[in-house]
Amino acid sequence: MSITPSATLESPLTSTWGPTNPYHDGPLVMSGYASRLWPHDSQPQFWSKYQVWEWLQQVIDIHQIDASSLPFQNFDMDGHQLCSLNYHDFIRAAGSVGHILYNSITELKSGGQYHLDIGQLELKHETDLCPFPDVSYPPGEIYDPSVQSLAPNISPTPSSPEIKRSFSRGHQVKKHNPRGTHLWEFIRDILLNPERNPGLIKWEDRTEGVFRFLKSEAVAQLWGKKKNNSSMTYEKLSRAMRYYYKREILERVDGRRLVYKFGRNARGWRDAEK
DNA sequence: TCCTATTTTCCTGCTT
DNA sequence: CAAGCAGGAAAATAGG
């Protein structure tokens, strides 16, 4: 790849993102991150992979869909590819949620805006508002065709075993999910999107679910950005992580700093869990 | 408005 | 000494 997560020596944070972001805490003040919107100024056909990913987040947020039940990997594609999927492709890729996704994209393709009011759509630079601030991906390299995305085989073959795995027992629409995504899910999603994970967190043992924060403060900033909280720190984020031990969403890994392990109650992190 | 789950904040003390 | 880690307590949030 062209982007090496090595530009680190200088300033851990600023070098990672926002080298040119005067927008940091300013324009974020709206009704919360739910007001983030997908780039309606451009057609979904022209979305980058990142924007597609962002759209997925929006949809599950709006519909209160359990993030862990949506196989993001199946949508590792750009807008052009996304738009070429038909209804069945969506169902195949996302089970029952595919229906919702299909409706959303269909709506957007026809110029609609889904049921999101974009009244406050002022900010153009929303790349700055999301989970993965553009991390300085040059415009042309937002996605890399060489990344073995599942995009190609999403419709052709019924092969993908993992596509249907999480849906066998239904699309559960969570009742109480404050912000669409919980911290652990946010962390998991970063782990699951290596192309957009500029060396923030890394798997230590993929099959065991052990991972380590490489840039703890950077991740905290990202999390804070998602929660529209510019004062988030790793100190505070880690406290929230520690609460997960009791709930067995995370298991304690002692001795090693910045290392955590997914527990029995954390789902959706496994690569190919049958 | 009250209730609940999930953080977010702060803090003291201990460990690497 | 500078980060992390452990948890307790209590406030803040946001959906129900």
Sheet with most strands: 4 strands, antiparallel
The low-confidence runs, each spanning 5 or more residues with pLDDT under 50, are 1-41, 114-175
Number of helices: 8
User: What are the secondary-structure elements, in order, as H or E?
Assistant: HHHHHHEEHHEE
How does the overall form come out from the CA principal axes?
elongated
Please report the distance between the alpha carbons of the first and last residues: 30 Å
Q: Helix share of residues?
A: 25-40%
Strand order of the largest sheet: 1-2-4-3
Q: How many runs of DSSP E, i.e. beta strands?
A: 4
CATH superfamily: Winged helix-like DNA-binding domain superfamily/Winged helix DNA-binding domain
Number of domains: 1
Oligomer: single chain
CATH class: Mainly Alpha
Q: Based on the coordinates given, report the CATH architecture.
A: Orthogonal Bundle
How is this structure best summarized?
This protein has 274 residues and is mainly α. Helix 3 (87-94) packs across helix 4. Helices cover 28% and strands 5% of the residues.
Outline the secondary-structure elements.
Elements: H1 49-62, H2 79-83, H3 87-94, H4 97-109, H5 161-165, H6 183-191, E1 201-205, E2 210-213, H7 216-226, H8 234-246, E3 250-251, E4 259-262
Antiparallel strand pairs: 1-2, 2-4, 3-4
The protein binds a DNA duplex (16 and 16 nucleotides) through residues 32, 64, 175-179, 182-183, 216, 227, 229, 231-232, 234-240, 242-243, 254-255, 257-258.
